[in-house]
Design a protein that fits this description.
Elements: H1 2-26, E1 28-31, E2 35-41, E3 44-50, E4 53-56, E5 62-68, E6 72-81, E7 87-98, H2 103-109, H3 114-131, H4 136-141, H5 143-158, E8 163-174, H6 177-231, H7 233-244, E9 267-268, E10 271-272
Antiparallel strand pairs: 1-4, 2-3, 2-5, 6-7, 7-8, 9-10
Helix pairs in contact: 3-5
Length: 273
């Protein structure tokens, strides 16, 4: 009988010890890097942010909810209309993070589903509002401006919710097939016009080169003629004639004819050649 009592007390002591150890160890918790915690007392959030590190809570009375404050990514497709009423399908990626100091408010007002409740509808509305300010062509040619417009409007929309928009990326704009065909035709026409312009510029350049060359040749002839004239044109005429002579002595009619070429007479002895 005594043995049974001792055994029961031993078992009871072990159980109580295990429970106590469980309660003690369950009272400690850690917040890892990149997280923040919200301490709940019977479900009511404490408005003080639980920072990274080791903390203690009252077992069975308090619990902890951890929330990620690192950069998070949200991607979605949004359908809207451009300023010229073209249907636009936009694929957008949003990088954001939660404001650490507002974690208790976010949990209290929104809960942990803040992406579905806040970010998703905000992105859809902002994309529609932004693309409506640009024509379909401008959405392509002014892509950077469209991106900044979306980012600014989105930040204004979620700022008071404790959400910071870091960056957005428009990964794709997609339009109707008819609009895509029209854009392709326009680009092709512009390329052909550019090719024609370049060809015309080449023709003009070559013509200018020929004109410049002709002017240079004419100037060279003028300079040569002036030089010959300064020395006496008769020698030049004779030189030109020699260059064209076929080897036969020309015939002259009339007493005042000028010899075609003055060939000096060579005298040898009494004979003249």
């Amino acid at each position: 009988m005594r043995t049974d009592n001792v055994l029961e007390k031993l078992i009871s002591g072990v159980v109580i010890g295990v429970i106590c150890l469980f309660l003690i160890f369950s009272g400690f918790y850690t917040i890892k890097a990149g997280d923040r915690g919200v301490l709940l007392t019977f479900g009511k959030p404490n408005m003080n942010v639980m920072e990274e590190g080791l903390h203690f809570k009252i077992p069975l009375v308090q619990s902890i909810k951890k929330m990620d404050v690192k950069t998070q990514k949200y991607e979605t497709d949004a359908s809207s209309a451009s300023k010229d009423l073209q249907i636009v399908s936009t694929k957008i990626a949003v990088n954001y993070h939660l404001t650490s100091s507002m974690i208790p408010n976010i949990y209290k007002d929104i809960g942990i589903s803040y992406q579905d409740r806040i970010i998703q509808p905000a992105v859809q509305e902002v994309v529609k509002a932004s693309t409506a300010q640009f024509t379909a062509e401008e959405l392509i040619t002014r892509r950077a401006e469209v991106k900044e417009k979306i980012k600014m409007l989105l930040q204004d929309r979620v700022n008071d919710r404790g959400i910071i928009i870091e960056e957005i990326s428009i990964t794709n704009f997609d339009f109707s097939q008819s609009f895509n065909d029209a854009i392709e035709a326009k680009v092709t026409a512009e390329q052909k016009a550019m090719e024609a312009k370049n060809k015309l510029e080449q023709i003009k350049y070559e013509a200018e080169q020929r004109i410049t060359q002709s002017k240079a040749e004419a100037e060279a002839i003028r300079i040569q003629a002036n030089a010959i004239q300064a020395q006496g044109g008769k020698d030049y005429v004779q030189l030109q004639a020699i260059a064209k002579w076929n080897g036969e002595m020309p015939m002259y009619v009339g007493g005042n004819a000028i010899p075609f070429v003055n060939i000096p007479m060579i005298t040898q002895g009494n004979e003249t050649r």
